[in-house]
Amino acid sequence: QVHVVESGGGLVQAGGSLRLSCAASGGTWSISNMGWFRQAPGKEREFVAVISWSGGSTYYAGSVKGRFTISRDNAKNTVYLQMNSLKFEDTAVYYCAAARGAGFRTATYEYDYWGQGTQVTVSS
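and the corresponding structure tokens:
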């Protein structure tokens, strides 16, 4: 069983920056990819970014590419999401998720373990 916990959410002004952290524990050796998703009230949960745990390759949603950066610290079993040039549209609950399967994962059903989310609010 892998446990995932997000932190670092908060309130920022448009154009500002925020860094989210995701700490994984338990059977972390089974993790192939770590991803970030977000969900606004009444909206579908959408993919944000994913990183390969071993190789470090990344993939981003078009809406955040160039503004967000996903990274990992394997020694700390932690992944980060650096968010720059934040927009009002980025407001959502951000979730960290772990996938056991190899390859890029961009759909919610492809992830096996989920955190409880951290709120990010961007004021306009």
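(Above: one complete record from the training split.) Residues 74 and 110 are 21 Å apart (CA to CA).
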